[in-house]
């Protein structure tokens, strides 16, 4: 089978396809014919060698965690009735950029009727994370919510879920076309982060005392600037890093304004939580409460182009590889 492998840390070109033996399902495992793999921004960061101590990986390795496909074979102790079923699962961070994966049968989720394999793959990361963000910041009906970085896969699902819960959502993004697409997705207002007074515009669109909740998918100076738009007693989630680092919120200032600050560790979910929220995300998708946007797809042999597109900020929504 073909895989896309990171041969050494470096630019997208270090991601090359190679032939590997087909996997065999061990006891308790299944082999999946992979139809779609979600490609994450964080995978580009790890490939570039900036993963640091948080992502302990040494090339060569095959990236890829969230895969959707059909069960090809089962190992000892696994129901043969699973063969041919449409499923979605995680590989455990590595090995997903491949035509086939061997994974534990325990971690499979059935893809519900009405949800495509592409959408299921796109939801495996963003769905549970967005649900955890909404639960953790207690977003509910009538809340004013500011989502920073809404053009990415997580931002889009955050906007949809917050709207579905009755919140009023102000979305921050840049690029005329991306701003228009986000408005179509249901944000109540969109603000261009490249406008010099974007924080003031966001404050005006939020109304009242500002945002009850801010979800920062971007980090750095943009996330820190957004903090000025939070209402007293609000909740701020600083989980995003694509700008280069997490937003740093002064704890004294947060305490003075009664603001609760959360971070990436609050969305690093236990296996049980991840499974519960994955099932909920798939149910929400089947019911139409969320609809991930697959903005671009690439064949496995063009995995390097997928990474280059994400790093070049030339993507919208989820990016998938289609082995
Ligand atoms: N996906 C998940 O489920 C998940 C789970 C846990 C944590 N996270 C974290 O959440 C953040 C967003 O993840 P994602 O998967 O949604 O990523 P994504 O799909 O690649 O989206 C990245 C977002 O960040 C913006 N961005 C990219 N480079 C930027 C830069 N240099 N300066 C400012 N904005 C920039 C993009 O906006 P433009 O359109 O303007 O480029 C886009 O809105 C990441 O830090 C990720 O590690 C994500």
Explain this structure:
- With 323 residues, this protein is an alpha/beta fold.
- The protein folds into 2 domains: 2-110 and 293-322, Alpha-Beta Complex (Quinone Oxidoreductase, Chain A, domain 1), CATH 3.90.180; 126-267, Alpha-Beta Complex (Quinone Oxidoreductase, Chain A, domain 1).
- Helices cover 29% and strands 27% of the residues.
- The protein has 9 helices and 15 strands.
- It has helices spanning 41-47, 117-136, 153-164, 176-184, 198-206, 220-226, 251-256, 271-286, 303-311; strands at 2-6, 15-19, 29-39, 66-74, 86-90, 100-104, 109-110, 144-148, 168-173, 189-192, 211-216, 230-238, 260-263, 294-299, 318-322.
- Helix 2 (117-136) crosses helix 3 (153-164) and helix 2 (117-136) crosses helix 8 (271-286).
- The longest helix has 20 residues, at 117-136.
- The termini are close together.
- 47% of the residues are buried.
- The structure holds NADP nicotinamide-adenine-dinucleotide phosphate (NAP).
- NADP nicotinamide-adenine-dinucleotide phosphate is lined by residues 40-42, 125-126, 129, 149, 151-155, 173-174, 178, 217-218, 222, 239-243, 267, 310, 313.
